[in-house]
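RESIDUES AND SHAPES:
===
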Amino acid sequence: MKSISLNCAAVLALALTLAGSACAQENPALFLGRANARVARASAFRSNWDGPVSGPKIASKRLIVFIGSDFRNSGVAGVAAGTREAAAMAGWEVATIDCYGVPSRHAEAFSRAMALKPAGIILAGIDAQMQAKEMRAAAGQKIPVVGWHAATKTGPADGLYTNVTTDPKEVGQIAALLGIVESKGKAGVVVFADSSSLYASAKSNEIVDIVRQCQTCSLLGVEDVPLTEAAAQLQQRVAALHQKYGAHWTQLIGINDVYFDALTSPAALAILAGNKLQAISAGDGSRAAYQRIRGKTLQIGTVPEPLNMQGWQLIDELNRAIAGQKPSGYETPAYLVTSQNIAFHGGQQNSFEPSNGYRSEYKKIWKK
């Protein structure tokens, strides 16, 4: 794995394909003003239910299979817990398959799921595009497949009945804009990316693009570190980056909290504290991230996802597929957590739990 130093004319390797207009820059004061406005909107308290209000009655008892990329990842584990909770309310059974962060196990897991002849399959953290053969097999057997972070956009994609997620591009933008705002437009940024995932790459593309649009900021580099290797690589990477960039490095922006969860050694923490580095994550809102933000130690923000609520949405979407109806079309908006709003929406329990009554809303739809 290599560190990549970039400027506006450079071509990013590692599948970080940037928009052609990325180098277009506006007046720094105007840009910072827009950034402040976007950050404020993303941090605002929301209590109204903005999801679906109608749909089919819940089907009688069904078996579904939840295939997770890695249950050690708090995002996958969280959405699995929400799926099980919603399924219990629906009277459905959930079988889970853990791929333990090994992509070569995805196809085998899919085959195991198909052998159970389920009413539906959930792909969590697994790119549906990379499982085209298995997706065709499921379609041939009329088994609907719903994704969570299984494509780079919400809604039907890559053979999925629908993909449940917050827009990864918006999430990446909000994370980058927070860094720019906190630095008063003078950020020196290193991005931690994971090119092994199309979904993760969609986030890092946007982080890079936004930083490049800030005329008074510096994109120092992009570190391509698979999430599964974060614990093994991050300590050494941070030491090397400190030697290379010194005081020019002010912000670490990662596509997941996992990177910062891995920074636990005294040496790494000393470097981070000494440089007064600020860490920002574009998902998914781990318990440790909440604790760091509350304690004002290293991390200043995360863009979490309402994992439990998304689990309920996955069950609702599968029920719509079973009933032969269209997907709900619901996309959860990006929400930014900082020390200023961490007390709300489940923050006291170190998770993002929207105060919008989603359980009651889905029960109404399902007539439960």
Observations:
- Residues 74-90 form the longest helix (17 residues).
- The chain has two domains: 3-45+168-302, 63-165+307-330.
- The domain at 3-45+168-302 is CATH 3.40.50.2300 (Rossmann fold).
